[in-house]
Amino acid sequence: MSYGVTIIASVAMVAVASAFGYLINRIRNASMRINCRTRELKDTSIKLEKEIKERKMVEKRLGIISGEWRMTFDSTQDVMVMLNARLDVIRANAASIILFERGFHAMIGAPVSELFSHIQLPVDMEALKKVYDTKNREARVIFYPGKNRWLDVSVDPILDSSGNVSGSVLVIRDITDIKTMQEQLLHVQKMDSIGRLAGGVAHDFNNILSVVIGYSELALKELPEGSIIHDHISAIRGAGEKAAALTKKLLAFSRKQVLDMKAVNMTRVIGNMTKMLERLIPENITLIFEAGTGDQQVLADPVQMEQILMNLVVNARDAMSEGGYLTISTAGVVFDEDQASDKANPAPGGYLRLSVKDTGIGMSREVQDKIFEPFFSTKKVGEGTGMGLATVYGIVKQHNGHIDVLSEQGKGSTFSIYFPVTAGETEEIAGTKAEGAVTGKETILVVDDEPLLRDIIAGMLAPLGYEVFEAGCAEEALKISEEYAGSIDLLLTDVIMPGMNGKKLADIMIKRYPGIKVIFMSGYTDDVIARHGVLDEGIVLIQKPVAEKVLTGRIREVLDSDNQRKPACAGLESPREISVLLVDDNKDIRRLIKAFLKDCSCRIDTAENGEIAVRKCVMREYDLILMDMQMPVMDGPSAIRDIRKREREKGLRQATVIALTGNADPEDISVCLKAGASFYLEKPVSKDVLVKAVFSCEAPEHHHADRDKKEGSEKMVATIEEELKDLIPEYMEERQNDINRMLKALETQDYEAVRILGHTLKGSGGGYGFGPITDIGLQIEEAARQGNRKDVGRWINELSYYIDNVEVLYRKTSGP
Amino acid sequence: MDRLRTLIVEDDISIQKLYDRGLPNETFEKQFSKNGVDALSRYELWKPDIIILDIFLPEMTGYSILRKIRKEYGDSDTIIIMSTALKQGEHIWDCIQLGIQGYIVKPFRFKTIGTEVIKCYQSAGKKMTDINEAIRQALY
């Protein structure tokens, strides 16, 4: 039994055991799986944790990025607005608040059109909507009258992933400054090109006018005065002269005038003009002059300053037909770097501001933009040429000045002109010098049958230091000369007198005093005398009535003049024909000048260009050469150089060469004087001027460029230490070489070479005692640095003049 | 009595002559040079006491010459006086930093140039006792 039990037990045991083993196994498996799962869970949770961390970081980064974007959008001054498909505002940047004058909350959700209408910004909503159809950018420049600004408005579509327009970005940028600058630049360029055009036209135009005026003059002489044809032709001549005056103004605008620059005290210029200005303006306008403090001195041509002032005053007057106040004021002003960076202001530095202010009708913006253009006029046809302000503009620019205008319609206008201030002697001092220079100790014999006139003239001359004798007729004059033991230096005589005429008297006096100078005075015009054969050769004629300044100046000039340089004077004792070579490529001009000189005792040869002229000069010696500057084959300056070279080489007498120039461009003039021209005449040249120039071989006033003006006003003297005396000739010669080098460098536009030479001049001049050479060197250096050809040319010319004319005095000193 | 050996580096002949007149032979033994290369070779061979250097020279500037002498030759003893035309203060400042004993502003008065050079020489602390008298005699 027990055995069976045992068996059963053992069987049961086995079964239990196996069941147990199975259980164990399963448990083991389960636990393994649990372990595995736990591990997996753990991994997952780590992963998750990592993911969360990363996500947080991304979010953080995104937050930063979005913040950065916000900052970016808020930092720009451009207005940026994001719109949805319905054109409502979704986002707006900080600049929007300022433009649309609304807070963020008031903007978000609002239709954009409402923002625009709120500030009355004229945005084209249709164009904006178009972006949603075309998916293309739309951009417009609009003027915002409320703020007086120019805005660049652009809209770009925002496309979603499927390429549909989900919204748009609106960007508004203020481009007022850029636009203003562009306009200024355009304006400057436009004025420049008009100037160039005007200068170019003026040259040819002057040739045409020469013919018109010249032949009218000649025809008038043939016609009886009072006849209808005489009237007609005199009208033609009048019109031609007006056209010539207009051409001159065009040249002024194109900055091609010859300037006589000196240190000028502006207050004085204005002061001298107030009388005249008062006459220009009617009684219902009050003229006020406010002289400012500070620097009043500028380097300028006083005549041009007067011109500017007159044009501005006339303009102001015309703007005040109802009357008002006209204020002229001056003030010293300084522009610093900051102010100068504004293109509308002049370069940094000290300036004299000249303002002319009126309380008249003022001008619109459109008018203001155009006022300086030639021929622009708001006046009725026939009332103004439209050249007044253009002339002012040209003159100001030629003086390196700056002009601007402030104007409001109904309130008036203010023109402000800025001239760079300068140090140096003022015109005042120069003026007294000029007066000093007309004095003299020479003996003058005054002959006139009119006792009053004689008295006046004697009264002018005696205080200047001259010894003056008076005679009422030629016979009395001869008697005085017989009794007077000394020499008579100048005969100042009337031409037509009872008894012996002035010409006869002069002939006798010239024989008696070989060096005597003669000035005729006459109430008749030159050509009448010339036609009657009274005015013969190289004799100076002054027209009565004569102003004191003209007379005293002319007397000094004549006394100082050098006989030998004047071929026409050479044959005074036995009058002979003057041989003239006329060089011009224009057939009409050649014919005209021949006609002008028909009545004069001249033998005229002609040449069509410089080359022919040079050849003719080889065959024959001329007293006088009239030379056009611009010609084909060989131009005037080259021909003059060749002719002068030959004269030097062969030791020939120098012919008087008169340059004829159609455009009084200072550069051209300096070139022809440099080449060796004696002086120049501007076309159109009138018969009177030409005849006078041919006979006296003297330039009309101012036509030696800067030369003859200086001769009277300023003696150039350099005081040099005695010890350096032996070095001076060589030093001067070297400077002459410098001039040639600079001119050569200028030809090839090698400004660097010019600059270096200028620099060297600066270093040496003052050391020797030639202060002006140092000054001029400085100017040349500066002008070359700026590549300013005109100024370089002008200063080289200055230098050349200085070197040719400076009088060197030697000073003996001991010790330093 | 030793004279001051003075090398004048100046490309403009006219200014060279002014120096020649202004620096009396009794006091100064002079050599002239027109450019940097020549100036440096004279400097090496002749060993001048004083060099007057124009700043603005063609090819090699006075400033370069000065720098070569001070830096490459390491010579800080030789008296160097720069000469400069008006309004060039900015260059002078660079030179002063390299070590110069004075500068001359052109245009200079030839009458006083001698004393100016002597002053620069004196201020450099050189002994002047034996030549002082000669200079005085020469200049006054």
Walk me through the structure:
The complex is a heterodimer of chains A (816) and B (140). Chain A is an alpha/beta fold. Chain A has five domains: 1-71; 79-174, Beta-Lactamase, CATH 3.30.450.20; 262-420, Histidine kinase-like ATPase, C-terminal domain (Heat Shock Protein 90), CATH 3.30.565; 443-708, Response regulator (Rossmann fold); 715-811, Four Helix Bundle (Hemerythrin (Met), subunit A) (Up-down Bundle). Chain A has 29 helices and 24 strands. In chain A, the strands form six sheets. A five-stranded antiparallel beta sheet of chain A has the order 2-1-5-4-3, with helices on both faces. A five-stranded mixed beta sheet of chain A has the order 7-9-10-12-11. In chain A, a hairpin with a 4-residue loop joins β1 (79-84) and β2 (89-92). In chain A, α6 runs antiparallel to α7 (228-253) and α7 (228-253) crosses α12 (388-398). The longest helix of chain A has 74 residues, at 2-75. Chain A is elongated, with a radius of gyration of 45 Å. The model of chain A is unreliable at 425-436, 524-538, 563-575 and 701-714 (pLDDT under 50). With 140 residues, chain B is α/β, with parallel strands linked by helices. Chain B has one domain (4-139): Response regulator (Rossmann fold, 3-Layer(aba) Sandwich), CATH 3.40.50.2300. In chain B, strands 2-1-3-4-5 form a five-stranded parallel beta sheet, sandwiched between helices. In chain B, α1 (13-22) crosses α5 (110-123) and α3 packs parallel to α4 (89-98). The longest helix of chain B has 14 residues, at 110-123.
